[in-house]
Design goal:
Strand 17 and strand 18 form a beta hairpin. By secondary structure, this protein is mostly beta strands. The protein is built from five helices and 37 strands. Helices cover 5% and strands 57% of the residues. It has a single domain (3-648), classed as Maltoporin, Chain A.
C-alpha cells in the first residue's frame, strides 16, 4: 500500500460497526489487525506491522470485550506493567512501567488534556463509550510530542460517525450501587456526519475493613462519585481533498467526601481540525484545541459553588507530511498557552510554549527503514529551551519478522503547579511549589523483536531509561516553628533508572478462540547521590506482572451470537518506604509490604439479532481482599457481579 493510500485511509477514517456483530462463526481470523493504520509513533499514517516504532493497539473489539467504563478500567485489564493506586485524597495515580502519570502523555485524537489530580489526568473523564481504538508507544517520544512524553504516549482515537442514522442505549449495574448509563446518536450523509455521546455513572461510598496489626495508616471508606460526560463530534468534507472536524465536550464529577461540602470537578473542551490533501504527495493538517479543567467545593447549606482551581490550555498545531517515493518528510509546529489559577496562589500564573520539529522517514528498501527526528521547545516561564532527538530503525531480515531499535531523548518541563502551587491537601499537608525546579531529561534505549504469521503473534521488547533531575514530591517539612501543618515540596531527585522487558504471545484459531498472554518485568531505582531516600506516597513499579486473556466467540444462528471471556492479572509483592501516618509525619517512616495478588474476571456477552446485547460479568472471581487497605492496596472488597445491556435502534 502506498503512503498516499494510507493518508486517504486516515482522512476517511474507519467507521464504527453498525451492529453488535462478533467475528463470523468459526471463521479464521484474518490479518485485519495487521492492516490497522497507526499514527502515534511517527505522526504519519503507517500500517501497524510496518511502523518503525513499536506500537501496541487496543482495538475496538478489545474494548468491547472488556466492557470498560474508562481508561483506568481498560489499561489495568489488558496491559502488564500498569497499576493504579490512590494518592492521599483518593485521586487515582498511574504507574506505567516505572513512570508516573506526569511522565506519560495522554492524548485524545492527538490533543493534550488540561488539569490534573495529584500529578495525573482525571481518568474518570476518559470514557470508553466513543473510542475506536487506543495506540500506545512506550519510551521517550519528546522529539515528536514535547514535554511529558519521556515515559511514553497513550493516544485515544475516537470514532467517526456512521453515515446511517442510528442510536444506541446501554446500562450496567454492579456492586455498591454502581450504575452506568450511556446514549450514542450518530448519522450523516456522504459529505457530513455527526456523533453525540453521553455517559452517566454513579457509585455509593462504601467501607472497607483491615485486619489488626497495620503498620501504617489505612483507608476505611472508599468515596464514590457520580459523573456526567457529554461529547459531540462533527465532520464535514466539502471536497475529496478537504476534511473539517469540530468537537465539543463537557465533563462533571462530584465526590461526596463530605455530605455538606462535596467536591466537584468540571471540564469544558472544544476544538477544530482541518485535513487538507494539497496533492497526491502533500498533506497539511491544522488544529486548534481549548481545554479548561476546574475544581470547586459545593457549599450545600449556602448553595454556593466555590471554585478553587482552574487550568486552561489553548493550543494551535500545524503538521505537514510530504511523501517522495517510499519516504516521508514530516514537519510541524505547536503553540500552547497555559493558564493556572488557584485560590491559594499569590497571583494567576501563565506560560507560553512553542516548538518546531522535523522528521525524516527513510525506507531504504523493503528490509530496512530509518526514522530520525529533532525538536526544539521553548517555555516562557524561566525561558526554558531544549533540543530533543530521536532515532528509530526497523529491520525485516525475513518475512513476518520485524526487529526494531530506538533511541529517544525525553524532556519534561516543570508545570505551573509544580512551580507555584500552595494547596491544603485535606489537612494532611500543604503542597508547595518550587520555582527553582529544573527540567527532567531522560535517555531511552529500546529493542524489540516481533514475529507474526498466520494465527500467531509474538513480541519481545526490552528497554532502559536513565532520568536526571526527576521531578517528584519531596519529604514534608515545617517551614517555621509556628506552622501546624507540614509542607510537601516539589523537588528534583538526582536520578531514576527504569529498565525492563515485556513478552506477549497471541493466538487466534478458526474455532473462534482468541488467547493472549503477556508478562512484564520492571526494575525501578530512584534516589539522590548522597543516599537520601524519599518517603514516596506513590508505589514503585512491581517487578513482575502478568496478564492473561482468552475468549470464545460463536454464531449459534443468524439471530444469536455469543462470547465468553476470562481475564486475569498477577502482580508480585513489593516494599515501599512510607510515613506511618500522613497526618502526623513526625511519627516517622516505615517499610510497608504490599503482597502479591491476582485478580480474575469472567464475562459473557450475548447478541440477540441486530438490536440487543446482554452482558454479564463476575469480577474478582477468587474473592480477593487485601489484609490491610493501605493507600496503594488494590481497592477490591470481594467478588463483584455485573449485569448490563445495549440496545441499538
Amino acid at each position: 500500500m502506498s503512503h498516499t493510500s494510507l493518508f486517504t485511509t486516515l482522512a476517511l477514517a474507519a467507521l464504527p460497526l453498525g451492529t453488535f456483530a462478533v467475528e463470523p462463526a468459526d471463521s479464521l481470523l484474518t490479518g485485519n489487525d495487521l492492516e490497522q493504520v497507526v499514527v502515534t509513533g511517527t505522526r504519519s499514517p503507517k500500517l501497524l506491522m510496518e511502523t518503525p516504532v513499536l506500537t501496541q493497539v487496543i482495538s475496538h473489539a478489545d474494548i468491547e470485550k472488556a466492557d470498560a467504563t474508562n481508561l483506568k478500567d481498560l489499561l489495568q485489564q489488558v496491559m502488564p506493567g500498569v497499576e493504579f493506586s490512590f494518592a492521599q485524597n483518593q485521586m487515582v495515580h498511574l504507574n506505567f512501567s516505572g513512570f508516573g502519570g506526569q511522565s506519560v502523555l495522554i492524548l485524545v485524537d492527538g490533543e493534550r488534556l488540561a488539569g490534573e489530580t495529584m500529578d495525573d489526568v482525571d481518568f474518570t473523564r476518559l470514557s470508553m463509550d466513543n473510542v475506536d481504538h487506543i495506540e500506545i508507544v512506550k519510551g521517550a517520544a519528546s522529539a515528536l510530542y514535547g514535554s511529558n512524553a519521556n515515559g511514553g504516549v497513550i493516544n485515544i482515537i475516537t470514532k467517526q460517525a456512521a453515515k446511517k442514522l442510528n442510536a444506541c442505549l446501554d446500562a450496567r449495574r454492579a456492586k455498591h450501587n454502581e450504575q452506568r448509563y450511556g446514549l450514542a446518536l450518530q448519522g450523516g450523509s456522504s459529505r457530513w456526519s455527526n456523533a453525540f455521546n453521553m455517559t452517566h455513572t454513579t457509585q455509593d461510598n462504601y467501607d472497607v475493613h483491615s485486619d489488626d496489626g497495620a503498620v501504617a495508616r489505612t483507608v476505611t471508606t472508599i468515596f464514590g462519585d457520580h459523573t456526567w460526560n457529554f461529547a459531540d463530534k462533527a465532520l464535514w468534507q466539502p471536497s475529496d481533498r478537504l476534511k473539517l472536524t469540530g468537537r465539543a465536550g463537557y465533563f462533571f464529577r462530584q465526590v461526596k467526601r463530605s455530605e455538606e461540602s462535596p467536591e466537584r470537578y468540571r471540564d469544558f473542551s472544544a476544538g477544530g481540525k482541518a485535513l487538507w490533501t494539497l496533492s497526491d504527495n502533500d498533506v497539511l493538517e491544522g488544529s486548534y484545541s481549548f481545554d479548561q479543567y476546574d475544581k470547586s467545593t459545593w457549599l450545600k447549606s449556602q448553595k454556593i459553588d466555590t471554585r478553587n482551581y482552574s487550568n486552561v490550555q489553548n493550543s494551535v498545531r500545524l503538521l505537514y507530511n510530504h511523501t517522495f517515493g517510499d519516504n516521508v518528510l514530516t514537519a510541524g509546529a505547536d503553540y500552547l498557552y497555559d493558564y493556572l489559577s488557584n485560590n491559594k496562589l499569590d497571583a494567576v500564573h501563565r506560560q507560553q510554549s512553542a516548538d518546531v520539529f522535523a522528521q525524516l522517514d527513510w525506507k531504504l528498501n523493503r528490509r530496512w527503514e530509518f526514522v530520525g527526528a529533532l525538536r526544539y521547545d521553548y517555555f516562557s516561564d524561566h525561558h526554558i529551551q531544549r533540543l530533543t532527538p530521536k532515532l528509530s530503525v526497523r529491520h525485516t531480515p525475513v518475512d513476518h519478522l520485524n526487529v526494531r531499535f530506538g533511541y529517544g531523548m525525553g524532556f519534561r518541563a516543570p508545570t505551573l503547579k509544580e512551580k507555584y502551587y500552595d494547596f491544603d491537601m485535606i489537612g494532611i499537608w500543604t503542597i508547595t511549589g518550587n520555582p527553582l525546579l529544573k527540567p527532567e531529561v531522560s535517555h531511552n534505549f529500546n529493542l524489540s523483536v516481533e514475529y507474526v504469521k498466520g494465527n500467531y503473534g509474538f513480541v519481545v521488547a526490552g528497554y532502559c531509561n536513565r532520568v536526571t533531575n526527576k521531578i517528584t514530591s519531596g519529604n514534608p517539612y515545617y517551614a517555621s516553628a509556628t506552622e501546624t501543618m507540614p509542607r510537601l515540596p516539589y523537588v528534583n531527585i538526582d536520578r531514576l533508572y527504569v529498565a525492563g522487558f515485556e513478552a506477549t504471545a497471541r493466538a487466534r484459531w478458526s474455532c473462534g478462540v482468541d488467547a493472549r498472554l503477556s508478562y512484564a518485568f520492571v526494575d525501578e531505582q530512584a534516589g539522590h547521590k548522597d543516599g537520601q531516600k524519599l518517603a514516596s506516597p506513590y508505589l514503585p513499579a512491581r517487578k513482575h506482572t502478568l496478564t492473561a486473556h482468552a475468549d470464545w466467540t460463536h454464531r449459534f444462528s443468524t439471530l444469536l451470537d455469543g462470547m465468553v471471556a476470562l481475564d486475569g492479572r498477577f502482580l508480585s509483592g513489593i516494599d515501599n518506604q512510607e510515613f506511618k501516618n500522613y497526618y502526623k509525619v513526625e511519627e516517622g517512616t516505615i517499610t510497608v509490604h504490599y503482597p502479591a495478588y491476582t485478580l480474575w474476571k469472567l464475562s459473557a456477552q450475548m447478541s440477540i439479532g441486530k438490536h440487543l446485547k446482554l452482558i454479564f460479568a463476575v469480577d474478582n472471581l477468587l474473592n480477593y481482599r487485601p489484609k490491610y487497605y493501605y493507600l496503594n492496596s488494590p481497592v477490591v472488597d470481594g467478588t463483584n457481579m455485573m449485569a448490563g445491556c445495549k440496545i441499538r435502534l
